[in-house]
Structures are given as structure tokens and as C-alpha cells.
Design brief:
Layout (H helix, E strand, L loop, with lengths): L1 H19 L11 E4 L4 E4 L5 E3 L14 H7 L33 H18 L3 H20 L3 H16 L8 H15 L6 H7 L4 H14 L13 H7 L4 H16 L8 H15 L6 H8 L3 H15 L3
Helix pairs in contact: 4-5, 4-6, 5-6, 6-8, 10-11, 10-13, 11-12, 11-13
């Protein structure tokens, strides 16, 4: 039984070697191209058809854009870190309908209800998986409220899993570590979200979030750069309905004042809000300090203090 198998393997290897070293019998060129539409092997130099009626090993369907390719693909969903089981288990739909869209009978509905109940029970085998499931659902809820992209949710889930593996959650609330992981992911991916904004959608106080964030970033060795105030300018300016000219001027004010060391130890959101307020005055699109403070979630006193410093740095006084 072993000899035919070895012979088939050798024949297969020989076929592969012959395909790799195929040359045109007419001109001897090695520039051989495959015409997938006609199923032919053609010499690119002289145009001789070397082989025809070749086997097409691709799918039998055609797709002209990404959405068609995704809808016709027969593979399952990709692995994701945002689910505790990485999306590898089966999920029973809540709709009591069959594959044709017809409603199930009362007996089938009862059976599907029991199957759905047991499916939810066996997806989490122990308390650790239940805690992970709850934490990842909290990350997904807060990320949706903050409007951050999918990549931030994936990074936050990875950070939380690392904290769980390092046993950093012991003695701390699951919500606090999940919120800290989301805040760290926003900073790591360059998505401007302040600690106040994250605390608004969280169920834990801001002080606990900051304390937990500093702890896990130190223990996990997360090398996070300071937040750049310029990242907040487009979002704040869009909320205030300001022009591109104001955004460019606010960016210039931040660059000039930061070069003089005024940014050190200052809140990036307050610094960006003061720059937008100063730029709106300079570009004749005046906004009040209260309007800017409400959008940036800072106090008017902060804007006034930073505004005075930035105006002096620009040399207007």
C-alpha cells in the first residue's frame, strides 16, 4: 500500500518541477503567461499557445468589487479578539425561522429555545471566561458610545487579555480595567479621546480609571506617547462649525506655543480648545469661551489661561 502512494508523490513532484521550468518549444523563451479566461498557457514573446484547456482551480463565481467578493465567499467570519471565544463557536439566531424565512412550528420553537439556552451556557465553561465575556462586552459598548473604529476595539481587547494573563485584575474591578484598556487603545491608535470622555461612558469614577490605567501601562510596558493637542483640533472645529482656515491657524498656534515649552504639564484638550478659540478670533469667526468649553469639556478658566499664554507666544501682545 505504501509503494503506490510514494509513486503518486514522485509523479506530483515531477509535475510541479516541469511546471516551474516550462519553456516555449518555438523560441525557447521562459516568459510563459497564463490566460485565465481562455484557459491557455501562452508564450509572451512569440504568442505560441503551449497548453490549452487547463484546469481552473479558482472559484466558479466572479466578483468585481470587495463587497461582492465578501458576499460570495464561503468561509466563515474572521477570528476576532473582541469576543471571548474569538468568534469560533456557533451562534444560534434569535429569529424563529427556517432557511426559507418561514416561521417555525410551536414544537420547533420550543426546541430552538432550549438549544439556544444550552448554547449560551456551554460557550463559557468557567468563571474566567464569563468575566472575559462581560469585560469585552463592556469594551464594545463603550467603544460604540465613543464612536471609535473597529481597530481600537481589537487593540483594547488584546490589552485586556494581556492584563488577565498577567493577573493584573486581581483586587480591581472588571469595568475599571476594561475602561483603562480602551483608553490605552485610543492613545496607542492615535484616536483622540480624553479621559473625561471615556469616564462619561464608563460605570467607574475617573480617578479609578486613571489609577488603573497608570498601573496596567506600567506593568504591561505600554510605551504610549503624550497626546498631541493637534489631534483634537479637527473634531472640536467640526463640532463648532468652523472653517479649514481656523483649523490651520489653531494648528499653527499649537506648534508655535509648543516649541516655546508651554505645552509641558498642560491638558491637551484645554490647550487645543484655547488654540481654537484664539484662531476663531484671528479669523473673524468668533466663538464664545462657553461654546468652546462645552465642546472640549473643559472650563472657561482653563481656556482663558491657555489663551493668554498662546497669544503672548504668537507675539500679538
Amino acid at each position: 500500500m505504501e509503494r503506490p502512494t510514494r509513486q503518486r508523490q514522485r509523479a506530483h513532484e515531477t509535475e510541479q518541477e516541469s511546471d516551474e521550468t516550462v519553456k516555449c518549444p518555438e523560441c525557447g523563451s521562459a516568459e510563459i503567461v497564463t490566460d485565465a479566461d481562455q484557459g491557455e498557457l501562452v508564450c509572451d514573446d512569440c504568442g505560441l499557445v503551449i497548453d490549452e484547456r487547463s484546469i481552473d482551480r479558482g472559484p466558479e463565481w466572479r466578483a468585481f468589487n470587495h463587497s461582492e467578493r465578501q458576499s460570495k465567499s464561503r468561509v466563515g467570519a474572521p477570528i476576532t479578539e473582541t469576543m471571548h471565544d474569538r468568534g469560533l463557536t456557533t451562534t444560534i439566531d434569535w429569529k424563529d425561522k427556517d432557511a426559507y424565512g418561514r416561521s417555525l412550528s410551536s414544537e420547533k420553537r420550543s426546541q430552538m429555545h432550549r438549544l439556544r439556552k444550552w448554547q449560551e451556557r456551554i460557550r463559557t465553561k468557567d468563571a474566567g471566561e464569563r468575566n472575559l465575556q462581560f469585560a469585552l462586552s463592556e469594551i464594545d459598548r463603550m467603544a460604540s458610545a465613543l464612536g471609535v473604529p473597529r481597530s481600537v476595539r481589537e487593540v483594547a481587547s488584546v490589552i485586556y487579555r494581556r492584563a488577565l494573563n498577567e493577573d493584573l485584575i486581581r483586587g480591581r474591578s472588571i469595568e475599571g480595567v476594561a475602561t483603562s484598556a480602551l483608553y490605552a487603545a485610543c492613545r496607542q491608535e492615535g484616536i483622540p479621546r480624553s479621559l473625561d470622555e471615556v469616564a462619561e461612558v464608563s460605570r467607574v469614577p475617573q480617578k479609578e480609571i486613571g489609577r488603573t490605567y497608570r498601573y496596567i501601562s506600567q506593568e504591561l510596558g505600554l510605551e504610549l506617547k503624550p497626546v498631541d493637542p493637534k489631534q483634537f483640533v479637527p473634531r472640536f472645529a467640526s463640532a463648532l462649525d468652523l472653517s479649514e482656515e481656523v483649523q490651520a491657524k489653531a494648528t499653527e498656534i499649537i506648534d508655535v506655543s509648543a516649541e516655546q515649552g508651554l505645552l509641558s504639564g498642560k491638558s491637551p484638550t484645554g490647550f487645543a480648545a484655547a488654540a481654537i478659540y484664539a484662531a476663531s478670533l484671528l479669523c473673524n469667526e468668533k466663538k464664545t469661551q462657553r461654546e468652546v468649553a462645552d465642546v472640549a469639556q473643559v472650563t472657561e478658566v482653563t481656556i482663558r489661561n491657555r489663551y493668554q499664554e498662546q497669544i503672548e507666544a504668537m507675539g500679538f501682545r
